[in-house]
Amino acid sequence: MPKVRLFSSEVKAAMALMALLAAPALADETIQGDMVVTANRVETASDKIGSAVTVITAQDIERQQAATVADVLRTVPGISIYSFGTTGAQTDVYIRGAESWHTKVIIDGVDMSNVSSTRPSFDFGHLTTADIERIEIVRGPQSLLYGSETIGGVINIITRRGKGKPRVGFNAETGSHHTYSLGSNISGGTGATDYAIGISRLQTDGISSAAERNGNSENDPYKADTLNARLRHRLTEGWSVEGSVRAMNDELYFDRSNSAAKRAEDDDGWFRKRDRAGRIATDFTLFGTVWENKIAFSLQESERDYENGRLAGGAKYYYNGESQKLEYQGALNLAPDHKLVFGAENKVDSTDQNGTNTLMGSADVTNNGTFADYQFSPLDSLFLTLGGRIDDHQTFGTHTTYRATSAYLVEATATRLHGSYGTGFRAPSLMELYLPIYGTKTLMPEESRGWDFGVEQHALGGKAVADVTWFDSRLKDMINTQTIGGVTTFYNLASTRVQGLETSARWQIAPDWRLSGSYTFTDSRNTVTGQILSNRPKHQGSLAATWLPLKGSEITASMRAVGSKFSSTNSRYLGGFAVFNLAASYDVTEQAKVYGRIENLLDKQYQEIDTYGTYGRSAFVGIRTTF
């Protein structure tokens, strides 16, 4: 049995700093909550929400100078992110120890899960931060409101919407590894119409996805083009129509894992992905503002082309997937703080594939879902929700989920108590059901139940706030693979339990100083074997300090620490690490800002995925203008 080092000295020191940060944020007053949509599918003040929620704004993204959404999410409590090497490589997001395919990702109302994958999920390696206005993360089972694939939670990404006079923006950045990015956007709102259009490109020579410490030196370049557009028109005071379009084109060279050597090695594989998403919707009210309605249709398409390198004999193959969804949502405002939200949806997924060593096949499946959620306040400081959902799947039949949440405000001590209990499920994917030879049509959905309870404390007249939340989640009928007589099939067997603690804090020390940090403890195990789940660190956290030395200037120093974690690739533990970053910006004029950052300031060598590489010290500079 190998000796386990839970923490390096760097990680221990980093965790101590996080503990010191949280201490001042425990004393006496409250802050009015921001409005959040994702938690209840309608606008709700954050202090009235029982679920665990994190909101990231465009200002937060700009302060971090993050190029990808994955980099933004790395500091969110309860979230773990792992990338298979270079920029653009597969990047998985785990919420509260759940699998990456247990998280639903929504962009401008469109479900972005790739249904052509064996286990549909969203690959964050291809998502840049261009034109993103807001990200809302809801942790815990959310199948009541969002159906399948929401065992871990929901990540809702909202792009910029136009308002006011027409504005033109431009940004350019360059840096290490021959990296550059360019972007431009136009937005505005005139009378009853608002619009926003943005385009961007990111290109880099990257690094070797296979770890250089194992003798791999061939860089894996990447480039991505993104187009995003939104348009809304108000026909009357209570009736509007809107549409959105998103297109992403990506090209990546990648390395592969050598199964015999049990490690990633340089390869000359090539990958191209084309994503298309669109949505049209209309919102209208009846009987004044008593009955709010939304009808929407969305379409999401994904095409993936592969050309393998020498490790896979140069095989060529493709996977295409498509999702169509028609949905209705209603909200009845029965009385102040009494609202009934209900809806129905029809979703059709389809996929086809072919290639050198890939079995040709195509399949489609339909799911119909209905839900209702009652949101009410029996007391002035108590806010509750209770709801249920029924899904009717073409293959396995009906499935029921439910959720209850509560939030209680203690004004005298500026304390908020919050908690939730819910169930979730993941329907078997098209590949798991219908893949030629390997598909198993008798699969049942994966089912989960989970709860959390937390305390949020405000202090120092609203200048400081800390939150501590305990969570517990259990999953049964997890879909695994088995090989009998040389034939691999899918089956329901494994069950897991994940429990842990999420903490976060922020403190406005002075007008020109602010601190923020987070820490997550996660214990995740297969309850059948007792084995710790792969790639789930027990300890991780982040810390950031921002200083405004001069008018228009800002300097942010940040640190991210991750403890050791078990890797199933070679049945061993990967050591913990701490990575430090430094970012600065200066407003040259009211319309122009220059900025720069150094990532991995101390040039730390570490691995997120066993035998796959990560970036060393890297520097970037850029300019952002608005007219």
* Discrete helix count: 5
Low-confidence stretches: 1-32
Would you tell me the overall average pLDDT? Answer: 91
Radius of gyration: 24 Å
Q: Based on CA inertia axes, which overall geometry fits?
A: globular
The major beta sheet can be summarized as: 22 strands, antiparallel, barrel
Structural class: mainly beta
Distance between the termini: 62 Å
In total, the number of strands is 33
Helicity, as a percent range? under 10%
Strand content: over 45%
Tell me the layout of helices and strands.
Layout: H1 9-22, E1 35-36, E2 44-45, E3 52-57, H2 58-64, H3 69-73, E4 79-83, E5 91-95, E6 103-107, E7 110-111, E8 132-139, H4 143-146, E9 153-159, E10 167-175, E11 179-190, E12 193-204, E13 222-236, E14 239-258, E15 263-286, E16 291-307, E17 316-335, E18 338-355, E19 358-379, E20 382-393, E21 397-410, E22 415-426, H5 430-434, E23 446-459, E24 464-484, E25 487-510, E26 513-526, E27 539-547, E28 553-562, E29 565-567, E30 572-574, E31 577-587, E32 592-599, E33 618-626
Parallel strand pairs: 6-9
Antiparallel strand pairs: 1-2, 3-8, 4-5, 6-7, 8-9, 10-11, 10-33, 11-12, 12-13, 13-14, 14-15, 15-16, 16-17, 17-18, 18-19, 19-20, 20-21, 21-22, 22-23, 23-24, 24-25, 25-26, 26-27, 27-28, 28-31, 29-30, 31-32, 32-33
